[in-house]
């Protein structure tokens, strides 16, 4: 009897506590979801913004400035300079092949300068030095590692040079970590799932409608809404410039490529037909349902190699003026957003109007570059979602067409230069595929030509005299 | 995810490498970062195709030979210490080294630099640059821009000038002698930032 009595007392003791906990949980969930709905999902549907993200961005910048000041005070000037602002290990002199080889010979030869432009054993020093210099530090490979920052944005992953500076800074960093992983990440993951889920579901529903204006209208709205939710899932703060140049039907939109997020950024402001290879898994599900609502261009893996087939499908799509503009990234691979690499000419051969778009990410908030050899897609997305924010600017450039007497390669280079100029990126000649493949021999030939001009030029003079 | 701390602990035999090559610890760290960057598949060593992916090297006419210099001991992988030892050849010569104090010659001495350059010519490592080998290097540096006859005459002249014992090949001593006035230190050195 006593036991029963005690148990009864204990139950009475726990029950109200249990109830209280349940009630609290229930309330917080409701509040949470209401906030989510009001501040994020509803604006996404209608395409309006409360400006919360911009306020967040300004606050973050102030915090970063403070953090950088702390670092500057805590470390001596010499350490700071050597640690954070000099990314290169060697100083490269910008002398030409001819100048250098002449100088090498001048120092070693007894003959006077004019007759000494024949082959010398010491000529190899120039090539050896240049070669080893490029092993230690070369333009191309550097583009592919993340841009090194001069100030610290409280993410250790972006700046490994900063050691322990002060307690306050470490506490701030720890707090940042807590906020990012404990609050922002779950929120963003929830949003991402919502966005993707809605996309798949709603596009399938719209796909059931008969083809016509209603379907196109609804498909547009659905796509825009879901992409906007995804944009909020990444806390992407995007500024669009020159929207009057937005791509129109029957055109091709080309942009520089930094990460898969580029697609979300562009597609949340306009409707495009995507081009790509059909993947398996979740990606494939998304792709298949998207194509039900409006015509995207997905290729099977085997079809990708067939350039004629690809070109035919693209030009068929472009000719149909009722279809959306195609979105293509001609670099073919992700570059680290400090430069624009060579554009593949395929999309420029089709003959449609090209609408160039420049995308520039602000590196202070998080590095958006996807180093596909280092990170897989999922770990990349997790990194993105646990950054502070993704801030970028998008410029819509005026449309360009291929001119008379211009071939596809020249046209591609012209577009590339325009994009690089607008985005403040360096216009590089190198092929983006370089980081995995070997460079073409034409560049080597240039060097050989320069050198032989030095040597053979004099041979001709000699045979004449 | 996570940070990569730049502590010396991740470089094996750091102190030994510093003594043998003369690199400072800061330089060693930067070189290690570079090594990791070139090692795209994170295997801990480099293979010839990692070098071939370096754009500046692939466009160098003697790029292939420079790569061979890293793999000269017959293996097909280069670990970090071998990598650094080869690069050490290109350090500027230390002006104020105490002659008696040096127990071993550093890789960036004049003789070692010359030896490195010599080996770029001497493919079969027999200690002599034969006419054939000279022709091959010239062909690499000039490509298809010159005719066979021009190539032959250039090689002929070079051998005649340098070959003192008339054995139709250039030995290392003859090589050294013909370059005795050249300022090797600046021409075979790379300006490392402090």
UniProtKB/TrEMBL annotation, chain A:
Kindly state a single biological-process term from the GO annotations of this entry.
phospholipid biosynthetic process
Leader sequence segment: none
Q: Does the keyword Lipid biosynthesis apply?
A: yes
Its pathway, per UniProt, is: Phospholipid metabolism; Lipid metabolism
Which keywords accompany this UniProt record? Acyltransferase, Lipid biosynthesis, Lipid metabolism, Membrane, Phospholipid biosynthesis, Phospholipid metabolism, Transferase, Transmembrane, Transmembrane helix
Give yes or no: UniProt keyword Acyltransferase: yes
The molecular function GO annotations come to: glycerol-3-phosphate O-acyltransferase activity
Q: What is this protein called?
A: Glycerol-3-phosphate acyltransferase 4
| Species, as recorded | Oreochromis niloticus
Automatic annotation (TrEMBL), chain B:
Compartments (UniProt record): Cell membrane; Cytoplasm; Nucleus
Concerning CDD domains, the annotation shows: EFh (cd00051)
All copies of the EF-hand domain together span 109-144, 150-185
Which GO BP terms sit in this record? protein transport
GO annotation, cellular component aspect: cytoplasm; nucleus; plasma membrane
UniProt keyword list: Calcium, Cell membrane, Cytoplasm, Lipoprotein, Membrane, Metal-binding, Myristate, Nucleus, Phosphoprotein, Protein transport, Repeat, Transport
Q: Does the keyword Repeat apply?
A: yes
Q: Does the keyword Nucleus apply?
A: yes
Q: Name one GO molecular function term.
A: calcium ion binding
One Pfam entry for this protein is EF-hand_7
Family of the protein in this entry: Belongs to the calcineurin regulatory subunit family. CHP subfamily.
Q: Which PANTHER family match?
A: EG:114D9.1 PROTEIN-RELATED
User: What's the protein called, per UniProt?
Assistant: Calcineurin-like EF-hand protein 2
């Amino acid at each position: 009897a006593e036991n029963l009595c005690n148990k009864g007392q204990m139950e009475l003791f726990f029950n109200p506590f249990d109830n209280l906990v349940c009630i609290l949980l229930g309330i917080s969930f409701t509040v949470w979801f209401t906030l989510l709905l009001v501040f994020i999902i509803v604006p996404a549907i209608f395409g309006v913004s409360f400006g919360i993200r911009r306020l967040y961005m300004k606050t973050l910048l102030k915090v970063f400035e403070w953090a950088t000041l702390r670092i500057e005070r805590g470390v001596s000037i010499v350490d700071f300079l050597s640690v954070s602002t000099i990314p290169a290990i060697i100083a490269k002199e910008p002398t030409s092949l001819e100048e250098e080889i002449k100088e090498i010979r001048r120092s070693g030869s007894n003959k006077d300068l004019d007759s000494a432009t024949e082959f010398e054993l010491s000529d190899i020093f120039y090539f050896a030095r240049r070669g080893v210099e490029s092993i230690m530090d070369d333009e191309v490979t550097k583009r592919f590692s993340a841009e090194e920052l001069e100030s610290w944005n409280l993410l250790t992953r972006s700046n490994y040079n900063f050691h322990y500076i002060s307690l306050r800074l470490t506490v701030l960093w720890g707090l940042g970590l807590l906020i990012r992983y404990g609050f922002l990440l779950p929120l963003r993951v929830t949003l991402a799932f919502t966005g993707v889920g809605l996309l798949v579901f709603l596009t399938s529903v719209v796909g059931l409608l008969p083809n016509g204006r209603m379907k196109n209208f609804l498909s547009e709205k659905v796509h825009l809404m879901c992409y906007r939710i995804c944009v909020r899932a990444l806390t992407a703060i995007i500024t669009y410039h020159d929207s009057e140049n937005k791509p129109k039907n029957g055109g091709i939109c080309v942009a520089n490529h930094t990460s898969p997020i580029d697609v979300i950024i562009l597609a949340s402001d306009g409707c495009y037909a995507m081009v790509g290879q059909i993947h398996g898994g979740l990606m494939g599900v998304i792709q298949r349902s998207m194509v039900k609502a409006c015509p995207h261009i997905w290729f099977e893996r085997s079809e990708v190699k067939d350039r004629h087939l690809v070109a035919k499908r693209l030009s068929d799509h472009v000719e149909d003026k009722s279809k959306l503009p195609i979105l293509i990234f001609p670099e073919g691979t992700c570059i680290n957003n400090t430069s624009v690499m060579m554009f593949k000419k395929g999309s420029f051969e089709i003959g449609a109007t090209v609408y160039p778009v420049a995308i520039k990410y602000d590196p202070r908030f998080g590095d958006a570059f996807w180093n596909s050899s280092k990170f897989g897609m999922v770990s990349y997305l997790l990194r993105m979602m646990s950054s502070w924010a993704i801030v970028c600017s998008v410029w819509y450039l005026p449309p360009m067409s291929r001119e008379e007497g211009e071939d596809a390669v020249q046209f591609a280079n012209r577009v590339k230069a325009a994009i690089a100029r607008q985005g403040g990126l360096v216009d590089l000649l190198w092929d983006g595929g370089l980081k995995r493949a070997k460079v073409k021999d034409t560049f080597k030939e240039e060097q050989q030509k320069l050198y032989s001009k030095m040597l053979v030029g004099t041979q001709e003079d000699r045979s004449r005299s | 995810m996570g940070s990569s701390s730049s502590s010396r602990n991740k470089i094996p035999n750091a102190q030994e490498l510093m003594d043998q090559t003369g690199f400072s610890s800061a330089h060693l760290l930067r070189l290690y970062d570079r090594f990791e960057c070139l090692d795209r598949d994170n295997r801990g060593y480099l293979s010839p195709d990692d070098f071939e992916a370096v754009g500046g090297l692939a466009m160098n006419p003697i790029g292939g030979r420079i790569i061979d210099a890293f793999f000269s001991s017959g293996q097909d992988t280069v670990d970090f210490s071998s990598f650094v030892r080869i690069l050490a050849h290109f350090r500027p010569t230390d002006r104020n080294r105490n002659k008696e104090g040096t127990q071993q010659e550093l890789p960036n001495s004049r003789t070692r630099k010359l030896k490195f350059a010599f080996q770029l010519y001497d493919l079969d490592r027999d200690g002599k640059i034969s006419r054939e080998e000279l022709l091959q290097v010239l062909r690499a540096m000039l490509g298809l821009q010159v005719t066979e006859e021009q190539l032959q005459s250039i090689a002929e002249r070079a051998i005649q000038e340098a070959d003192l014992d008339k054995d139709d090949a250039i030995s290392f001593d003859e090589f050294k002698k013909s370059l005795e006035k050249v300022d090797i230190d600046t021409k075979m050195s790379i300006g490392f930032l402090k």
